[in-house]
Amino acid sequence: MTEGRPSAAGSAPLWERDAEVATVAQALDVLCADQSSAGSLLVLRGEAGLGKTALLAETRRIAERRGCTVWSARGAETLKSVPFHVVRQLLQPALLSLLPEEAREYLGDWYDIAGPALGIADPQGDKADPQYVCDGLVAAVRRLSRRQWPLVLLLDDAHWADQETLRWLAAFAERLDDLSVLVVVARRPGEVTGESARLLDAVAAAAGRPVHTLSALTPDATAGLTRATLGRHADDPFCREVWAVTGGNPYDTVELLAKVQDSELQPVEARAGELRALNRAARGGGLVDRLKGLGLEATRFAWAAAILGTGITVDMVARLATMNDELARGCADLLCTARILTEPAPVPGTERAAGELEFVHPLIATAVYNSIPPGVCTAMHGVAAQIITELGRGAAEAARHLLKVHPDDDEELVEQLREAAREHLAVGAPDAARRCLERALQEPPRPEVHAHVLYELGCATLLTNPAVTTEHLQSALAMPGLDGDDRVDAVVRLSQALLHNDQLEEAVRTVEAEAARHEAGPVRMRLQAFQFMWEGIHGETASPARSRRLAELADTCTGRDNAERALLILRGFDAMTHGESADEVLQLCDRALVNGRLAPGLGWTDPEWGMELLMMLGSAYAYADRLDRAESLFGEARRVYTAAGWRGGHLSLANAFLGLAYRRQGRLRDAESTLREALVLAERVGRRLPLYWSATCGLVDTLLARGRVEEAWTVAEQYGFAPPYPSTIVLPDIRSVRGRLLLAVGRTEEGINELEAAEKTAASRGGHNPVLAPWSIDLAKALAGQDPERAAQLAADARRQAERFGTDTAIGEALRCAAALETGRRAVQLAARAVTYLEASPCQYEHAAARVEYGIAARSVAELGRGMDLAKACGAEELVARAREVLETGRGLH
């Protein structure tokens, strides 16, 4: 359209934007109507200059007129490497309105987590989990937004936002259903790739509505804008040429018309030929020429402003451009008059720094920055870093400038970047830490420091990107510099990264080779313990010979130090997996504790041994019927990791194994919710990794126990719960669970094949625990109809192994299997014995199942009722339905 718009040139980008403005107005209507309304998200997409910023400004105007609180932020091309830069901008009004003690009280537990990322609190440790920080930011914004309803959040140039902000935005956008807030995001198409592009796509998907793609002005609109700016006497050919020259881009049109006014060009056809030259002077190379025409001092001032990018004040620019205050103020005035710089619009709730400036448009900022000669640009970044350091703002803030400095064998620069990396890690920005350390390697570091930088780079990504960790730690160990404890720690971390990247054989070889370099003693014993650990959790080829060597070594251990305690735990886990005496398993595990608790230096966050050893300890207790200790250990892991802010692989595994303990206890509802949380966390780290399998397998097993077969199958399909399997042991046993799932959905032949594959794995490992890997029991039941002789043999073998292991659960489960293969009085007798054992077991689901089966076999109303009550308490829906059906039928019951 050409009419019905304000005539000021400044409103030009709103021409032909009626549909977008109407959408904004409608969203504000919904927001302001009811504080309980769901939040909404609008995404505006358009090329540079098409009016995205103007639409956000109009959104602010309409929102404030309706009494809304508006927070806004903007990405910047030169600031993408600054973590949390945009989200800090966004929250500035709210943060400045709170005193520190008020912020702490209002944010509660999230203050220590989100506060450092927002710059309002000191970090609580050396390393913060980035996912936990992201969750903390989501919670912080949600809490702050509830006190500001109705609230509107505006994010401009999101394509230039830092990755940490985009991660927060994607997570926040998914949680708008129960939060009454309007979020409007403006971005250019393209511009970004990789993780940032994925996150922006996730934001758009969360909007639940089509993205608003802005188009260029039509010839009619351009003509209307031209006449509104230059006068109604502008003729049609002239207006048509304005459109042809600018392509209908609103920003280019406004700039061109400003040049027309400045040059007093008459808007008539005879002068239309001069428009192309004027347009070239309005942007790009022409803009640079225009800047140079303002003089050397003004040019240097504009360069310095472009280098700073944010926090542009006359004082800071004067220091960077090395000019006195009077000259700097004169340059600022000159650049403002030339429409290159301007004073930022006031934002309610914030105080503007004296002499604060910003570029009129991001296109201008980009053109000015790109016009700086490379050598001058590098030097100015170096000076900017020095100024920031002198002002005491920290290495992390100076880092974005240090990253731009050319490598020059500068020892001090390497140390500054290492310090910046530590600061980034402390606030949960490992990507920023990685960039600093990668840049430090280019310097390069001194030979004696080089390996340490690689080691720090590897540690920055441990369990968030195991493949990257592996690469850097292998490089660090291949060069001189890492000696003594540092080298051993690097080897152990490398083996952990290889394990979590499903490279278990290489993990074993890594610690084995390092152990061979050391004489007998604590260091070698530690490395041997890790070797036995990785071999012990190998899912396919752990050999009987290895078990014998471990048993011999453990026999010499009394538990006097953590190396010996580790070997006792490994021996206990190995004995449990092979179905040796449960009493011996418990004795070994108990000897590894100090007064019933984990020894100092052997805790969940202690780096020397890692979490895998303690997961094995808890698992040994879980399958040896000491579920109280298993739950205590895994519950402690979850509390410790949560308190430490570790929201990646560590917390995922803690939840997965706590879910395992709940499942063993028969607390199926608790198990399901905990395992679902584990799976969400595991997906953030990456699919197909061992920790992902643990969460998925446990959830499928729990759903099967609850009788929700279709849901179990859906989860299996959704999360890829099918071969090929990882090389590590998965608890519960992955093939047993997969086989049971296939049988449950009627794919009997495939289920039998899966269980027979589990049988072959058990044979290669030299035996198995029939409770840990119940394939023999499930296979016996599956073969009962087609091969009763083999089924009976499998049931007898399971019973013999169960009696060897000796727990009430193992024997009771074997008796349940035997009863299922019998009929008449023999079946009743075996079912009754199964109840006797499982009544003494801590596994209540199995007890409930045995009660129901005995009630059916004995036709006993009392036993069915008891079994149904137990099943209800467990959340075993299928068992309840089965018992109720028999009770309701009532035939032959007594």
Description:
The protein is mainly alpha-helical. The strands form two sheets. It has a five-stranded parallel sheet with strand order 2-3-4-1-5, with helices on both faces. A two-stranded antiparallel sheet has the order 6-7. Strand 3 (151-156), helix 7 (163-173) and strand 4 form a beta-alpha-beta unit. It is elongated.
List keywords for this structure.
894 residues; mainly alpha; five-stranded parallel beta sheet; elongated
Cα-based radius of gyration, to the nearest Å: 34 Å
Multimeric organization: single chain
How many runs of DSSP E, i.e. beta strands?
A: 7
- Biggest sheet layout: 5 strands, parallel
Number of helices: 44
Beta-strand content estimate: under 5%
Overall mean pLDDT: 86
Helical fraction: 55-70%
Low-confidence stretches: 1-10
- Category by helix and strand content: mainly alpha
Topology:
Elements: H1 18-33, E1 40-45, H2 52-65, E2 69-74, H3 85-96, H4 100-107, H5 111-118, H6 130-146, E3 151-156, H7 163-173, E4 181-187, H8 194-207, E5 212-213, H9 219-230, H10 236-246, H11 250-263, H12 275-282, H13 284-293, H14 296-308, H15 314-321, H16 325-337, E6 341-342, E7 358-359, H17 362-371, H18 374-390, H19 395-402, H20 411-426, H21 430-442, H22 447-459, H23 466-477, H24 484-500, H25 504-515, H26 522-536, H27 544-555, H28 562-577, H29 582-591, H30 611-623, H31 627-644, H32 649-665, H33 668-685, H34 690-706, H35 709-718, H36 734-744, H37 748-765, H38 775-783, H39 788-805, H40 808-820, H41 824-839, H42 844-858, H43 861-874, H44 877-889
Parallel strand pairs: 1-4, 1-5, 2-3, 3-4
Antiparallel strand pairs: 6-7
Helix pairs in contact: 1-2, 5-6, 6-7, 7-8, 9-10, 9-11, 11-12, 12-13, 13-17, 14-15, 14-16, 14-17, 14-18, 15-16, 18-19, 19-20, 20-21, 21-22, 22-23, 23-24, 24-25, 24-26, 25-26, 26-28, 27-28, 28-29, 28-30, 30-31, 30-32, 31-32, 32-33, 32-34, 33-34, 34-35, 34-36, 36-37, 37-38, 38-39, 38-40, 39-40, ...
Coiled coil: 494-521
InterPro entries: AAA_16 (IPR041664), P-loop_NTPase (IPR027417), TPR-like_helical_dom_sf (IPR011990)
Organism: Streptomyces cinerochromogenes
